[in-house]
C-alpha cells in the first residue's frame, strides 16, 4: 500500500485567541496526500485555502491536530526547516526570486540551496546548457534571458522562473498558491501547461489553489472544494473527469 507523503489529522486553527473576535478558521480538517498526487483546490474567498497552505508550509502552526510528513510528526516544525522537503510558489511575481540577480544565478541559487553564497556562483557557466534546457521547457522564451536580471523579466517569465526554482531540487511537496492568477489568460495557460508537464514527467506531488474552475477540473488527479474551513468535497477519477464548471460552482452556493 502507498504510504502518504503528508497527512493532516483533525487540524484546527484559531485566530485572535482569547478575544471577542476569536475565530476558528480550519475546522477539524483531515487530509491525506499520496506521492504523485496533483491536487487542485477551489473555494470562495475566505474559505481557508491560504490558511491550509500556511499550516502545511509551517507559516502557521496548527492549534489542534497533527501534521505528518512521511509518518513523522512535523506539527511544530518551523517554516525554514520545512523548506528541506517543501517549496511554495506565490501569486506575486516579486516573491521567490532575487530581482537583481540574473535568471541563471537564481537557478543556481535554487540548485545549491543551503550552500554559502560565496561558493554558489562558482562555475556558473558550467550550468548554462542545463539551465537553457530547463528554461526552454517553460515555452515562454525564458531560455533566451538567462543573463537578464530577474526584475526585468515579464510577469509570466518570472513566475515560470519561480516555479522552476521551486521544483529544481525535487521537493516532496510543492504548494502552488494561485501562481498564474496575476497573468493574462494566454500567459497563464502557457504556464499552466508547462507546470502540468513538469509535475507529470517528474512525478512530483503538488497542491494548487486556483480560482479558475476550468483549470481546477482540467489539471490534477484530485480536486478539493473548501468551504468555511472544511473540505466540502474531495473529487477524483471519473467524477472529476465528468465535472463541469457549472457543477463545480454549484458547490459554492
Ligand atoms: N491572522 C488572521 N487574523 C484574522 N483572521 C484571519 C487571519 N488569517 C485569516 N483570517 C481569516 O480566515 C479566513 C480564511 O482566510 P484564508 O486567507 O485562508 O482564505 P482563502 O480561502 O485563502 O481566501 P482567498 O481566496 O481570498 O485568498 C478569512 O475569513 C480571513 O479573513
UniProtKB/TrEMBL annotation:
Residues 6-253 form the ABC transporter domain. Keywords: ATP-binding, Nucleotide-binding. InterPro entries: AAA+_ATPase, ABC_transporter-like_ATP-bd, ABC_transporter-like_CS, ABC_transpr_LolD-like, P-loop_NTPase. The keyword Nucleotide-binding applies. Pfam families: ABC_tran. One of its GO terms (molecular function) is ATP binding. This is ATP-binding cassette domain-containing protein. It comes from Limosilactobacillus alvi.
Amino acid at each position: 500500500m502507498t504510504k502518504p507523503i503528508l497527512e493532516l489529522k483533525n487540524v484546527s486553527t484559531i485566530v485572535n485567541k482569547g478575544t471577542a473576535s476569536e475565530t476558528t478558521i480550519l475546522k477539524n480538517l483531515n487530509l491525506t496526500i499520496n506521492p504523485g498526487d496533483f491536487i487542485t483546490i477551489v473555494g470562495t474567498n475566505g474559505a481557508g485555502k491560504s490558511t491550509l497552505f500556511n499550516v502545511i508550509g509551517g507559516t502557521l502552526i496548527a492549534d489542534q491536530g497533527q501534521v505528518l510528513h512521511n509518518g513523522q510528526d512535523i506539527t511544530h516544525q518551523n517554516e525554514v526547516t520545512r523548506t528541506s522537503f517543501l517549496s511554495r510558489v506565490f501569486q506575486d511575481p516579486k516573491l521567490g526570486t532575487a530581482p537583481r540577480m540574473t535568471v541563471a544565478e537564481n537557478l543556481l541559487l535554487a540548485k545549491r540551496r543551503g550552500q554559502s553564497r560565496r561558493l554558489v556562483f562558482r562555475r556558473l557557466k558550467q550550468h548554462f546548457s542545463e539551465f537553457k534546457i530547463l528554461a526552454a521547457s517553460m515555452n515562454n522564451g525564458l531560455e533566451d534571458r538567462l543573463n537578464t536580471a530577474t526584475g526585468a523579466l515579464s510577469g509570466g517569465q518570472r513566475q515560470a522562473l519561480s516555479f522552476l526554482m521551486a521544483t529544481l531540487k525535487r521537493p516532496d511537496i510543492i504548494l502552488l498558491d494561485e501562481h498564474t492568477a496575476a497573468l493574462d489568460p494566454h500567459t497563464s495557460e502557457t504556464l499552466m501547461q508547462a507546470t502540468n508537464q513538469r509535475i507529470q514527467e517528474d512525478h512530483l506531488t503538488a497542491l494548487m489553489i486556483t480560482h479558475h474552475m476550468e483549470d481546477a477540473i482540467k489539471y490534477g488527479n484530485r480536486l478539493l472544494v473548501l468551504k468555511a474551513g472544511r473540505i466540502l468535497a474531495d473529487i477524483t477519477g471519473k467524477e472529476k473527469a465528468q465535472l463541469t464548471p457549472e457543477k463545480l460552482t454549484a458547490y459554492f452556493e
